[in-house]
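User: Design a sequence. Structure:
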């Protein structure tokens, strides 16, 4: 068991002034089977989670003194750990790195096995926006050398170093003066390079090596997990989109309805401040909200003349059929079948299938109800021309808060008026 004592623990500013090993204090937290820490004060559960996330990859038994000059490193790490989306993780990582190393720019390069080069994934600073499409050669660049050697490199006079890959500077009209690069690992494989350029006040030092290496070890697993998650998620989304398109094609009246509802729902979700994982759920819920139409006979779904009362009841059952189908898929969140079940409910209880009222309808149900009607009325259908969006917004506004949620209608209005 490795004992760690943290002194002067401060979540808001400097993360750790001292991390010492070996002296026991009054409070202890088990980080892993090998590491136990002793902070000098009792921590809240949020602080403990944050600390665990931060320390989980530190397994060496040397004294580590990391002085983070600025930034809220624990908060940043907590943010990184709570996000699955690769794009967000990379951006947060790059931001933190640039601040911690007091540098003009920072980049994350990931190894492209097909071309045997490194590609920029996220960049910042003066060269950002110019270099993303460049293939950085492994054999003639500082990042490549770091990747090959599997160790941190500092070059404090980049322009005179033969390994400096000048194409990035030329393309960005930027002058790289100094650079620090460290490899990113996943298990035993090197997966990329983390680098910072042009330290603002000075040259890169041994202390910077400790910071960048600690950071690399903290984020390597996270990066790879996010990438795996992203690949898997895009495959699953592709399948869901194919199902949604098949549903739309079966209904002669609504060819791109599910896709439209999904696109607009995501915009509304963003406007309402939802986080990434909630937005992903909303996207799937929107794409599949009409999946129950699979169980409605063609002659009723596509009947050109007026429906009888019985036929209308059958059409209405697509909500129940959809919810049942989706609730049988274990890995889907319960919000998704709820969206299918409730997207025709109204806050005053005049909707279907269960005449639910406000307080009984889920947030997804409320959002999809608004977007479903907006898209249905503004789209061209075989039996009608598209209605102007102003007219549809007026109808929705007149019906809130009676039938629709005012906040959602307000967000919709903002999104379609951009
Ligand atoms: Fe529907």
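Assistant: Done.
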């Amino acid at each position: 068991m490795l004992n760690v004592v943290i002194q002067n623990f401060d979540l808001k500013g400097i993360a750790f002034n001292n991390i010492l090993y070996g002296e026991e204090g009054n409070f202890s937290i088990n980080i892993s089977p090998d590491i136990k820490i002793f902070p000098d004060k009792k921590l809240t559960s949020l602080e403990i989670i944050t600390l665990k996330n931060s320390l989980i990859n530190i397994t060496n038994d040397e004294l580590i003194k990391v002085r983070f000059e600025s930034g809220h490193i624990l908060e940043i790490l907590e943010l990184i750990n709570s996000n699955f989306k690769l794009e967000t993780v990379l951006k947060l990582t790059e931001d933190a790195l640039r601040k911690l190393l007091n540098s003009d720019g920072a980049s994350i390069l990931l190894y492209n096995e097909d071309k045997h080069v490194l590609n920029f994934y996220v960049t910042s600073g003066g060269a950002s926006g110019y270099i993303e499409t460049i293939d950085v050669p492994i054999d003639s660049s500082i990042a490549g050398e770091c990747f090959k050697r599997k160790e941190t490199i500092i070059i404090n006079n980049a322009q005179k170093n033969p390994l400096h890959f000048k194409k990035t500077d030329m393309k960005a009209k930027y002058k790289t003066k100094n650079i620090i690069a460290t490899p990113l690992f996943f298990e035993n494989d090197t997966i990329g390079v983390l680098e910072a350029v042009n330290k603002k006040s000075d040259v890169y030092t041994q202390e910077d090596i400790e910071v960048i290496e600690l950071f690399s070890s903290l984020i390597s697993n996270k990066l790879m997990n996010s990438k795996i998650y992203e690949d898997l998620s895009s495959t699953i989304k592709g399948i869901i989109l194919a199902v949604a398109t098949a549903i739309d094609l079966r209904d002669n009246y609504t060819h791109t309805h599910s896709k439209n509802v999904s696109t607009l729902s995501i915009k509304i979700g963003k406007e309402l401040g939802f986080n990434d994982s909630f937005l992903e759920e909303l996207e799937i819920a929107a794409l599949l909200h009409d999946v129950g139409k699979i169980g409605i006979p063609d002659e009723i779904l596509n009947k050109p003349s007026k429906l009888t009362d019985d036929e209308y009841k059958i059409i209405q059952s697509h909500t129940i059929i959809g919810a049942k189908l989706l609730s049988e898929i274990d890995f889907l969140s319960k919000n998704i079948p709820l969206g299918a079940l409730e997207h025709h409910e109204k806050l005053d209880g005049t909707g279907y299938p269960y005449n639910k009222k406000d307080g009984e309808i889920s947030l997804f149900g409320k959002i999809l109800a608004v977007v479903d009607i907006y898209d249905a009325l503004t789209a061209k259908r075989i039996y009608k021309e598209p209605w102007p969006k102003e007219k549809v917004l007026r109808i929705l506004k007149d019906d809130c808060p009676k039938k629709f949620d005012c906040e959602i209608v307000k967000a919709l209005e903002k999104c379609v008026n951009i």
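Confidence is low (pLDDT under 50) at residues 1-24, 56-72. The chain is about 45% helix and 15% strand.
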